[in-house]
Amino acid sequence: MPPFVGNIILAACALITGYVIKWLLALFIHKTTKTPVEDYSMMRSIVKRLGRPVNFFLPVLVLNMMMPLMDLHPKQLKLLSSTVEVLLIITFGYVLIGIVKVLEDYIVHAYDLRKADNLRERKIRTQLQFLRKIAVTIITILVLCAVLLSFDSLRKIGTGLLTGVGVGGIIVGFAAQRSLGNFLAGLQIAFTQPIRIDDVLIVENEWGRVEEITLTYVVLGIWDQRKLILPINYFIEKPFQNWTRTGSAILGTVFLYLDYSAPVDALREEFFRLVEDHPLWDKRVKVMQVTNATDRTMEVRLLISAVNSGQAFDLRCFLRERMIAFVQEKYPESLPKTRAEITKDV
Fold first, then answer.
1. Is the pTM of this model over 0.70?
2. Chain centroid to CA 263: how far?
């Protein structure tokens, strides 16, 4: 058998062996995973996140182990060794990124945002996004450095670049100043946390929830399904409202503008009845007060509490509708009116 044929057979056997090992591991994990598909499973997460990286890494690893058995010319062996070394570095970095994502899946499962009081979960999830991005960036940089250092010629190029950094480095530093500021602002937000994932914010007169925080920008999901994209340093330099900074519970208000003849005690009794029978009220606050009076109407404020801003909004709408209907039905003469006195000229 010619040497090149034997080498091809060995390489093919190495690749097939790697795929078979990966297939057997995946089959074993599938057999040992009994949880439903919609539930979290560590084994299922490993298959999902590490399946493709291992699919590339194992065949290259087995090929590297088979190389001493190949009959190659020294130059061919050196070329093949360099190629396999680079592929091993790249695929191993791919595996490390997969491991980072497996850990992320576990933490996301452990700190579920679907809880009613999810302040701690939002803190962890916000830090998790930054740490995952930083870890992936570091792994990518280390893989690139390892690949460059595996070639002697590239080492010399790298040395030349380092000695000639001078003015070019200063120019790049000025050009990247704003990006670096955004990056540092992202780190500051990750650990001081003026905002977190799933926080409810009022920004630029828009109400929305924080959907994503990256190292350079924040994505805010507006109530009508629009997306507001803001630079990360906006939340360091400018004021904004955070309705869930220390908890999701919130107070809501409803204002009614009625004639002075409106019976305040009857309105208060109806308000209490509506609130106490409603499932969205969290039983903390229910207050009705006349908070202002003008030359035509008096301002009646209904103050209620709810476990989050969404439920508070729905409860406010309900009370506004029912209280207006109550006044229309029982005391229509108490609706706002304009008074005029008509006199005859003498």
1. no
2. 50
DSSP 182-207: HHHHHHHHHHH-SS-TT-EEEETTEE
Nearest-angstrom CA–CA distance, 68 and 230: 56
Q: Burial letters for 224-257: b for 16+ Cβ neighbours within 10 Å, e otherwise?
A: eeeeeebbbbebbeeeeebbbeeebbbebebebe
As a whole number of angstroms, the distance between CA 81 and CA 76 comes to: 8
**Dihedral angle sign, alpha carbons of residues 105, 106, 111, 113:** positive
**Which residue in this structure is represented by tokens 């209904």?**
302
CA distances from 198 to 85, 209, 245, 314 (A): 44, 5, 11, 19
How far from the centroid of its chain's Cα atoms is residue 114's Cα?
A: 14
DSSP string, 71-135: ---HHHHHHHHHHHHHHHHHHHHHHHHHHHHHHHHHHHHHS-TTSSS-HHHHHHHHHHHHHHHHH
Tokens 């090992």 belong to which residue? 21
What pLDDT, on a 0 to 100 scale, did the predictor assign at position 161?
A: 45
- With beta carbons less than 8 A apart as the criterion, state whether 21 and 58 touch: yes
Least confident of 2-11, 102-111, 126-135, 247-256: 2-11
303: β partners? 253, 287
Beta-carbon contacts of 67 under 8 Å, excluding residues fewer than 6 positions away, are: 77, 80, 81, 84
**C-alpha torsion 74→80→85→91, nearest 10:** -170
Q: Are 58 and 22 in contact (CB under 8 A)?
A: yes
**67-98 per-position pLDDT tens digit:** 777 766 677 777 777 888 888 889 899 999 99
